[in-house]
Amino acid sequence: MATNAKPVYQRILLKLSGEALQGAEGFGIDASVLDRMAQEIKELVELGIQVGVVIGGG
């Protein structure tokens, strides 16, 4: 997205699987994966987008 473009959505919901947070470890939460996701969410918030996050428990 161009830096001066207005986002299409003002509010989004991210549904993440717990498995996505495992990374290559196969168990627990991989801190590097969590950090990357947090940085990407931060970028959305800085654009003025409200972000909700749901982590699956399945």
Automatic annotation (TrEMBL):
<dbReference type="GO" id="GO:0006225">
    <property type="term" value="P:UDP biosynthetic process"/>
</dbReference>
<keyword id="KW-0665">Pyrimidine biosynthesis</keyword>
<keyword id="KW-0418">Kinase</keyword>
<dbReference type="InterPro" id="IPR001048">
    <property type="entry name" value="Asp/Glu/Uridylate_kinase"/>
</dbReference>
<dbReference type="GO" id="GO:0033862">
    <property type="term" value="F:UMP kinase activity"/>
</dbReference>
<dbReference type="InterPro" id="IPR036393">
    <property type="entry name" value="AceGlu_kinase-like_sf"/>
</dbReference>
<feature type="domain" description="Aspartate/glutamate/uridylate kinase">
    <location>
        <begin position="11"/>
        <end position="58"/>
    </location>
</feature>
<dbReference type="Pfam" id="PF00696">
    <property type="entry name" value="AA_kinase"/>
</dbReference>
<comment type="pathway">
    <text>Pyrimidine metabolism; CTP biosynthesis via de novo pathway; UDP from UMP (UMPK route): step 1/1.</text>
</comment>
<keyword id="KW-0067">ATP-binding</keyword>
<keyword id="KW-0547">Nucleotide-binding</keyword>
<keyword id="KW-0808">Transferase</keyword>
<protein>
    <recommendedName>
        <fullName>UMP kinase</fullName>
        <ecNumber>2.7.4.22</ecNumber>
    </recommendedName>
</protein>
<dbReference type="GO" id="GO:0005829">
    <property type="term" value="C:cytosol"/>
</dbReference>
<comment type="similarity">
    <text>Belongs to the UMP kinase family.</text>
</comment>
<dbReference type="GO" id="GO:0005524">
    <property type="term" value="F:ATP binding"/>
</dbReference>
